[in-house]
Write a structure and sequence with these properties.
Helix content is 62%, strand content 6%. The protein is mostly helical.
Length: 382
């Protein structure tokens, strides 16, 4: 990348706030990366392993005590429970490695700092719930790209969320369904041994209770099938896709959902025919997917909340009437001074050596890069 040319047109106008910005050779005061020594890969791995171990142990203790010392734990679900422990280790390990990188560490500090900021809550008490709903829940930013992609993503998101909300507590022995008669139709749902609700298995509420995973499977199949179809037909998607990263997650979701529905079909219409084989196939697909989550495309689920914090950081900066920086070339507004300085700090952390580019608007960046290409690579080309 070529440095921005120091020409007359790129000189800041009088009153431009950028001359007061910290020099690019050192972190700004209060910078999240200030004073942190360089981290070796071995040190990062040790810290990540420790974090993964601690989180795994805490989950095991939560399973033991949440199931009332394993009294409510179903041994038939042991493989799923073991997979969730591996999932917890993998997520903690990968997250620790991720935030060890300078750019991610800044995102982590700024994002979660804004997320839990009391001052931000006082300034804009409704901003965080609104951003959680729109950015995490309904993901409106996807609708700007394609309404079909947004709808398919929503089907997968809510289907997986419903499945996780049912499966994980059942796997850990936190949820139990008991019947005083042993065979129904009256059942009680208990959480940690405490009765929450009683229902009739033959009622609509009972049907929802026992078929929640089937509903989740239908949602996931519809969404994943659309994305799988798109990756087979769309030229843009085909060009950049990778089998292990882009296709395996979709295939895994479809296999889990289809085998789950076939289990219900077998128990209702086939009187249990082929149930054992389907149960093993379903278990293998679920365990594989849970272990895959921390190291594949699904890891963005864990990263997304920090990005919500960054959106809140931008929003509160604007609410505080922070000075808006203008482009050094065309003088069009870019963003608030704290946000631009945070971007410059990230570029300094990464030793990119051209953090001044953060003070140019996207259009001017393209123009300057094009001019530099003509001047230095294709000199004289017209």
């Amino acid at each position: 990348m070529t440095e921005p040319p120091q020409t007359a047109e790129s000189t800041p106008p009088p009153g431009d706030p950028t001359p007061g910005a910290p020099a690019p050779d050192g972190p700004a005061p209060g910078d999240p990366a200030a004073g942190l020594p360089p981290q070796t890969p071995a040190a990062v791995r040790r810290r990540a392993t420790l974090a993964g171990t601690v989180v795994s142990v805490l989950l095991i203790l939560a399973i033991v005590f949440g199931s009332r010392l394993l009294r409510d734990f179903d041994s038939a679900l042991l493989p799923y429970a073991v997979a969730t422990v591996f999932l917890a280790f993998g997520v903690a390990y990968r997250y620790t490695v991720w935030i060890s990188a300078p750019g991610a560490r800044r995102l982590f500090h700024k994002g979660w700092g804004s997320f839990f900021s009391v001052a931000n809550f006082r300034t804009a008490p409704t901003a965080l719930p609104r951003m959680i709903a729109t950015y995490l829940g309904f993901q409106k930013f996807l609708g700007a790209r394609s309404h079909a992609r947004w709808a398919a993503h929503q089907l997968i998101f809510w289907g997986c969320l419903l499945a996780a909300a049912i499966t994980f507590p059942l796997t850990w022995g936190w949820f139990t369904f008991t019947s005083s008669t042993g065979s129904g139709p009256g059942y009680e749902m208990r959480i940690w041994g405490l009765k929450i609700i009683g229902f009739d298995a033959l009622s609509f509420v009972g049907w929802l209770m026992f078929h929640g995973l089937d509903i989740a499977a239908v949602l996931v199949i519809a969404g994943a099938a659309y994305f799988l179809w798109r990756r087979m037909k769309d030229r843009g998607a085909i060009t950049g896709q990778r089998f292990a990263y882009d296709l395996v997650p979709l295939i895994a979701l479809i296999v889990i959902s289809v085998t789950g529905l076939l289990l219900t079909f077998s128990s209702i219409f086939l009187h249990g025919g082929g149930y054992e084989f389907l149960a093993i196939l379903h278990m293998v697909s679920v365990v594989f997917t849970l272990i895959y989550i921390p190291f594949g495309k699904f890891f963005h689920i864990v990263q997304r909340p920090a990005a919500v914090g960054m959106q809140l950081f931008k929003y509160t900066s604007r609410r505080k009437d922070e000075e808006v920086l203008t482009c050094r070339r065309c003088y069009e507004p870019i963003d608030t001074a704290p946000y631009v300085e945070n971007l410059r700090g990230t570029m300094r952390d990464l030793d990119l050596g051209f953090d001044e580019w953060a003070e140019y608007c996207p259009r001017c960046k393209r123009v300057l890069r094009g001019n530099a290409y003509l001047d230095h690579v294709k000199k004289g080309f017209k």
